[in-house]
Amino acid sequence: MADMQHDVVIIGSGPGGYVAAIRAGQLGLNACVVEKDPLLGGTCLHRGCIPTKALLHTADLLQHAREGGKFGVVCGDVKLDLTAAHAHKKKVVTKNSKGIEFLFRKNKVTWVQGTGRVLKAGLVEVTKADGSHVTIECKHIVLATGSRCGDLPHIATDGDRILNSDHILELAEVPPRLAVLGAGAVGMEFASIFARYGSKVTVIELLERVLPLEDTDVSAEVDKSFRKQGITVYAGTRVEQATVDGQVVRCKGVNARGEAVEVEADRLLVAVGRVAALKGIGLENTKVQIERGRVVVDELGRTHEPGIYAIGDLTATPWLAHVASMEGVIAVEHIAGRNPRPINPLRIPSCTYCYPEVGSIGLSEALAREKGYEVKVGSFPFSAVGKAAILGESVGFVKIVADKRFDEILGVHIVGPHATELLAEAEAALAGELTTEELAHVIHAHPTLHEAIHEAAEAVDGVAIHI
């Protein structure tokens, strides 16, 4: 007989798992979360989104303090206190984790610390830190174990000179030279952090451009800004070897033209993606199917094993915290007998918190054309926005991609000041299937940064006022 009984057991307490648990409690389900770590929140809270953005905020403040003189605020002896930055990061993480604990109590969610493993559909075994075991009988299981840092077969991270994104969050000192392998969101964010902390940063990307999933114009703008900040960028470059020689890491590779590229650094960050955390969770005891390292699910998160769902980084949907959260909500609402609306993949926002920030949603110009749309595009630079001038943030633009036939907005791409916050308006515009004409008729307050969105909508038809 099982030690505990619940309506639903959720394995993992990241942004997918804990949100699913809270919604389950709201819906009257008796929910239990199994979490291996001593604190709730998963990778996003402890080793991903939140601590990274805390360090980015420190970099932002450091940059503002250094540049304060041009705004009439003179700061003397501006320097980084990395110990204090880490203390702030830890305080934020702990506060948020305790907040999840409070929400669990509020919504009557049970939390069991230990490593969860599915014995069969409807039965989960939890191995605690002391080696003891607890079995939980349940009607439904939600797998939300997330992902871990990915490695390269020819470049092994050691936590000392060759780092992954977990390691670099705990660096006690700023490396004089930092090489970053991978120019996706993770690599570009850490490059942005440490360049402003004082490192000489080199970014190396296998594909032909940085932020390769973004619109090509956005990638070009970020590349240009990084180089202006003194960051070296090698795009279209394959690193074939990385060796540690004392306190130096030597990277050797070749670019798209066949030319040799050599980079020396004090630390190398390997930021080449993540791997789903499938090992040891008992999938071999179920009918759950795996394809290319991901759990196969339908639009409601159901696996091939009745009663078992999978969400977040375990699946083939975009590995983003907000996607995992929504997938968790959809899964438990379906378990509760509701009729949840599946996620529209073209309505998923993407954010990169480097400097300058990037926010995008919907189709890029190239993808829209590939899908057969007759496209019209409008762009408006922040250099022509009064509020951006006030802030001294003139880099970047807003770009709107629209369908020429019906004028419907297909995608919005923002690079520049507070892009990740400004994106909210674009999210609402696409959710409401607005046209550029309708967006252009929305009165935008002045002076604000989001005036650039208004003028980009006007620019689609060539009638932007301020350019």
Percent helix? 25-40%
Structural domain count: 3
CATH class value of the largest domain: Alpha Beta
Radius of gyration: 24 Å
What is the CATH-assigned architecture of the largest domain?
A: 3-Layer(bba) Sandwich
Low-confidence stretches: none
How big a fraction of the residues is strand? 25-35%
Helix tally equals 13
Let me know the CATH homologous superfamily of the largest domain: FAD/NAD(P)-binding domain
Average predicted confidence as pLDDT: 97
Summarize the structure in words.
By secondary structure, the chain is an alpha/beta fold. It folds into 3 domains: 4-148 and 275-335, FAD/NAD(P)-binding domain; 162-272, FAD/NAD(P)-binding domain, CATH 3.50.50.60; 356-459, FAD/NAD-linked reductase, C-terminal dimerisation domain (Enolase-like, domain 1). The protein has 13 helices and 24 strands. Strands 1, 2, 3, 4, 5, 6 and 19 form a 7-stranded mixed sheet that branches. β12 and β13 form a beta hairpin. α1 (17-26) runs parallel beside α8 (321-335) and α3 packs parallel to α6. It starts with a strand and ends in an 8-residue tail after the last helix.
